[in-house]
Amino acid sequence: MEEDDGWGNGTPLPDLQRTESWGTTGSKNDETEWPSDPEEPSPMQPDWSAEPEEEILKGIKVGNFECVKTDYLKQQVHRISKDFAGTMEIPLGVSMNILRGFKWNKNRAGIDIFSEEHPKTYTTMTTKETKESKVRCMFYASIDLEAKGKKPKKSKKHSALENKVGKMIEDGKTQQVIIRALIRKKYKPADVMKAFNAIQAKIAEKILKSENLTECEKGRGLVSRENATRLRCGHWGCKDCWKDALTHSLATGREIVNYRCQKIVCKNKKCSQHKSDTGCFCEEAVPREVFDEFLGEKGIDQYDRWMAWQFALDKKKEYSHCPAPNCEYWLKQLPMSNSSRAECVCGKVFCFYCHRKCHSPVPCRQYEDFLERGGEKNVLSLWLKSRTFPCPKCKAPIEKNRACLHMSCICGHHFCWACKKNWNGIGHGYYNCPSYKKDKESKKYEVEAQKSTREYRKFKFYDAQMDIIREDIKLIQKKKDKFEKEMENSCRDLNTYSFIFEALDTLLQAKEQMIYLVITAFYFSGRKTQWTCLKCTFLNAGTNKKCTMCGRGTKPVHEDMKGAGGKDLFEQQQKLMVQVTNNLMKLFSKDQKLDEILQNRKNVVTVRNACDKFVRKVVEDVDDGVYTNFILDAPDESIEGWYCVLCKKMNDFGKPVCSSQGCDACQVHGEAACLRCNPH
Ligand SMILES: [Zn+2]
Ligand SMILES: [Zn+2]
Ligand SMILES: [Zn+2]
Ligand SMILES: [Zn+2]
Ligand SMILES: [Zn+2]
Ligand SMILES: [Zn+2]
Ligand SMILES: [Zn+2]
Ligand SMILES: [Zn+2]
C-alpha cells in the first residue's frame, strides 16, 4: 500500500458497493463480495460506473407536502453521501459524517471543508500512517495498572467520587457518559480521571485473575495490528472491544450517530478547557463502515435508520415528522412551498414547524406570544402595570383608586401620586401638590402605563371574540353528539341524513379557522397599502393621492378596500366569514329534531356549500401567503380601535357596538342591533 486508505492496513477499506442493501430496493447484500482475507488488497476507488441504477423511492403527495417513510430518507442520505464520497474520493461513512457537519449541503461542504473556519465536521481530512505491528487499544487505554502500586493518600471526597464512578460502571454506563456526567457536575476533570482509573484498575485486577481473557486483556491493551481497527484520527481499538462498545451504543437510540472515538486525548492534568460536551475525548466520529464491520445486518440497519432521522431533523425546514401516535410518515415540504398547515396521509393535520395543532395563518412565534399573553400571569402584570405605580421605597405595586393624591404603601411609606415624593414636609394637600412637575421618571412611567393599558384592552378585545367562537364550537359539538345519538337509536338511513353532519363539520371547521383569524387580526399591520386606480388599473402606493400612471384617478376614500390587502380588507374578510357561518348556524338554532331539518334539506345544503366555499377560499389565501407580509411581531401600536364593517368607522376597543350615529353594529358579528349579542 503506497497510499493511506484512511483505515490503516489492518482493516480493509470497506467496499462501497456493499451499501447497495440500503433502502428497500437495490441488490441484496452478497457476503461473497466482501473480501474475507484481511490481507487481500481492497480497491482504492470503487468503480462508480458499475453501480446498477436504483429505483428512486417516492412519497405520497398531500397538498403542499410529500409524505415519505424512513426508507425514503435512508435513500436520500445514501445518494447524497455517495455522490460526495465520489467527488472527494473518501469512504461513504466519512462522507456522511462530513455532510452532517454542513447540514447536508454538499456544495458548501465541498468548498468550506478546505477553509480554516469550517464547522465541526466530525472527521479529520488527513490521516497519519503508523507501522508498528502491535497497537494500543483505546478502550483499554485508560486502565492504568501502575496506579494501584502507588497507593496515594485519599481524601474522603476522593473515595466518594470513586464510589460514584464504581456505581455508574455497575449501571452499565460507558466511560464517556460517566466522565462527562461528572465533569458537568463540576468535578475537576483530573479528579474524575483519577477516580476512573483507580476503579478500572480494580476491575482489571479482577479480570486478570479470571481465565477467559481476550487478547486485549492479556496484552493489557496491546494487541496485534490485524486484530484491531483504526479510525482516521489514528486511534486504534481491538476488534473485541469495538464489538462490545458498538453493540452497547445501539441501545442509546439516535445518539448512536454521535458516537465518537473513545481515546482520551487531553494530557493536561488541570484541564479546564474540556468542559464542553466532547469532554477530554478525541472528536472523530465513528463512521458507518466501522459500525458495519461489527454490528451485523440488523445493527447497521438500525444505524442507517437513526442517521436518516438525523438527516431529516437537520433539515427541519424541509422535513417534519407526523406527530400522530405510531404514524411512521415524515412530511416533506414541496419545493417553493413554505406552508405551515401540514396534512399527513394518516389524516393528522398539524403545524409543520411547531407540531402543535395547525394554527395558520398565525406564524408559530405570534401564536406562542398570543398564548403567553393570555396566560394568567401576563394578563395580571399588564393590568397592574396600567393601574399601579411601584412604591418609591419598597417597589411594591400600589394601586391608585381614588382621586386623592395621598398614597400609602404597606411598607409604611407615604407619597404623593403626582410628584412621587415623600408626602410629609412640603405641604401636600389631598388634591393639591405644590411641587408637581412632570419629571422624567414619572413621564416614562406614564407612557409605559398608557401603552400597557392599550395593549391590555386590545388583547381583551380579541380574546373576548375568541371566547364567543369557542362557545359556538361547544354548542355545535353538543348538537352533533345529540344527533349522532339520535341516529344510533333509530333505524334511519345514514345516507339520507349525512348532509346534516357534513353541515355541522363545515361549521366546526369554519369556527376553528375563525379563531386563528382573530389571532391574526391582533398582529395585523395597520399600514396603508396600495390602491388600484379605477381609470387605468395601475397599482399605486398608499401614499399617492393621485394615480402616478395616468394622473386622472384619485385615491378612493376606503383605499384599502380597493387595494391589495391591508387590515380593513382582512377584517372585512373576517366579518364575512362570521356572516356565512351565522347563516348556517341559524338553520340549527332551534332545538330541532333530525326530521325537521330533513324538511329543510335543500336550504341547509345550499347554505352549507356557500359557507364551505368561503372557508376554502380563506384557507387558500392563507396558503398562498396573501396575509404573510401584514403579520407583525407585536400588535401594531398605531391601531387603537376596531373597524366597523357596516359604516367603516374606527371604534374604541372598549365599545362592544359601533358608536357611529344609527349604526349600532356589533363588534363581533358586524350586524346592526345584533340579535345574537342582544337576544331580545
Ligand atoms: Zn481492546
Ligand atoms: Zn481536557
Ligand atoms: Zn481518535
Ligand atoms: Zn401521520
Ligand atoms: Zn406552529
Ligand atoms: Zn407631590
Ligand atoms: Zn358602524
Ligand atoms: Zn353580535
TrEMBL record:
InterPro entries: IBR_dom, LUBAC_E3_Ligases, TRIAD_supradom, Znf_RanBP2, Znf_RanBP2_sf, Znf_RING, Znf_RING/FYVE/PHD. The keyword Transferase applies. GO terms for biological process: proteasome-mediated ubiquitin-dependent protein catabolic process; protein linear polyubiquitination. Residues 208-437, 391-437 form the RING-type domain. Residues 466-493 form a coiled coil. One of its GO terms (cellular component) is ubiquitin ligase complex. Pathway: Protein modification; protein ubiquitination. Keywords: Coiled coil, Metal-binding, Repeat, Transferase, Ubl conjugation pathway, Zinc, Zinc-finger. Residues 527-556 form the RanBP2-type domain. Residues 1-50 are annotated as: Disordered. GO terms for molecular function: ubiquitin binding; ubiquitin-protein transferase activity; zinc ion binding. PANTHER family: RING-TYPE DOMAIN-CONTAINING PROTEIN, UBIQUITIN CONJUGATING ENZYME 7 INTERACTING PROTEIN-RELATED. This is RBR-type E3 ubiquitin transferase.
